Amino acid sequence: MRMKTIQSLAPEAVWKHFYSLTRIPRPSGFLKPVTDFLVDFGKSLNLETFTDEVGNVIIRKPATPGMENRKGVILQAHMDMVPQKNNDKEHDFEKDPIETIIDGDWLKANGTTLGADNGMGVAAIMAVLEDNTLKHGPLEALITADEETGMFGAFGLKKESIKGEILLNLDSEDEGELYIGCAGGIDVTATFQYKETEVEEGDIAVKVTLKGLRGGHSGLEINQGRGNANKLMVRFLREAIATYEARLAVFEGGNMRNAIPREAYAIVTIPAENEEELRELVEYCENLFNEEYAGIEENISFQAERTDLPKGLVPEEIQDDIINSIFACQNGVMRFIPSIPDTVETSSNLAIVKVADGVGEVKILARSASDSMKEFLTTSIECCFSMAGAKVEMSGGYSGWDPDVNSPILNAMKSSYKAQFGVEPAVKVIHAGLECGIIGANIPGLDMISFGPTLRSPHSPDERVYIPSVKKFYDFLIATLEQTPVKA
Question: Where is the signal peptide (predicted)?
Answer without folding.
Answer: none
